[in-house]
Every structure is written in structure tokens, then in C-alpha cells.
Amino acid sequence: MRSQPVRPLHAVVVMAVLLAGLWVLEGLDQLSGNALDSYGIHAREVDGLPEIFTAPLLHAGWEHLAGNSVPFFAFGLLVLLGGVARWAVSTLVSVVSSGLTAWLLTPAGTIVLGASGLIFGWLTYLLVRGLWSRRPGQVVLALVILFLYGGLLWGVLPGAAGISWQAHLGGAVGGVVAAWLLHRDDATRRRAEQLPAFYR
């Protein structure tokens, strides 16, 4: 899938606005006595499925949001630099995969909130897209991210109480799927473009 790259400054502005929006929403949630938390994912409740799209925008307090802010901005920025279309597809696939997995595997009666599922989707997307694109820059970037943030991947396994490993796992799977969807034809296309016109 072709996608026009985004200028770095524009990408920074977009991600900064989105991150600011998360902080504003958390402020409104605090002022409302956590009323917005009801828009999180209600595990195994059919009428709660639409909340898979609102849950990533909400957090269970300032500490939760602060912990997600840096990776949200950094990974989102790196994905966005590759183009708006790829950012949108990888985001949508990660959100849906994370939300459905959390909805299905989380114990009933639980509300799941937070952007971490999306963050895991962006993380795995950045890590594996080079497998299909074969672009040296993307491979090097993946190695750097793996070195700096590889420890986060343990979050897909059951761990501390109150942390949704289900959302992490679903998001991670979504990121891999998005990378395959978006980059599976990249290497073939690049080889074709390098051939003389006579051989195309």
C-alpha cells in the first residue's frame, strides 16, 4: 500500500495534539467523578462492543496516562512518518484487534481502559514491517526499537493485577497483521521498479 510520507514537523504536531486530547479527556473524566470510564470496554457484554473504539482514549487516572504518554507519542510519530494512510490502517487494525481480544478474554464484569493496546500494535508494526518491505532503514529502526523497548513485549503475558495483558496481546497481533497487510507487496514492487522498462 502506497502512502505519502508526512513531514516530521507535521507529524510531531499531529501526535502532540492527539496526546493533548488524551490529557484533556482525563481531566474531564476526573472532574466528572470518572463518569467517562463507562465508555471503556465492558468485557463479554455484547452491547459494550462499540466501546472498543472509545476505550483507547480513556485512562484509569493520571499515573496510567503518564505511563502511556511517551510510547504513545513516540510510536505513533514513527508510524505517522510513513504516511497518513498507513498510520490510519495500522491504528484501526490494532484498536479493533486489541479491543476484541480484551472483550473476549477479560473476565466478565471488568472494564478495560487505556491506549496500551494501540501502543503495542504500533510497536509490533514497527518491529516487523521490515520483514516484508526489506527496507534497510526500517530494519535498522526495528532493531533500535527492539533494543530500547523490547522489554515491553513481556506485557502480552499475564502479569500484574490491573494490567490488561489481553489488550496488549490483541494489539500486538493487530500490529503484525497491519504490517503484513500494508507491506507484503513492498519488496516485489521495489524490485519491479528497479527493472529496466523492457523487463516490466
TrEMBL record:
Q: Does the keyword Transmembrane apply?
A: yes
What region holds the Peptidase S54 rhomboid domain? Answer: 51-184
- PANTHER family associated with the record: RHOMBOID-RELATED PROTEIN
SUPFAM superfamilies, from UniProt? Rhomboid-like (SSF144091)
- Species, as recorded: Microlunatus spumicola
**Membrane topology term:** Multi-pass membrane protein
Q: What is its main location?
A: membrane
The record's subcellular locations are: Membrane
InterPro entries in alphabetical order? Peptidase_S54_rhomboid_dom, Rhomboid-like_sf
Q: Does the keyword Protease apply?
A: yes
Annotated signal sequence range:
none
Q: What is the lineage of its organism?
A: Bacteria, Bacillati, Actinomycetota, Actinomycetes, Propionibacteriales
Q: What is this protein called?
A: Rhomboid family intramembrane serine protease
The source's domain of life comes to Bacteria
Which key words are in the record? Answer: Hydrolase, Membrane, Protease, Transmembrane, Transmembrane helix
Gene Ontology molecular functions: peptidase activity
Regions that span the bilayer: 70-89, 101-127, 139-157, 163-182
Query: For this chain's UniProt record, which GO biological process terms are given?
Result: proteolysis
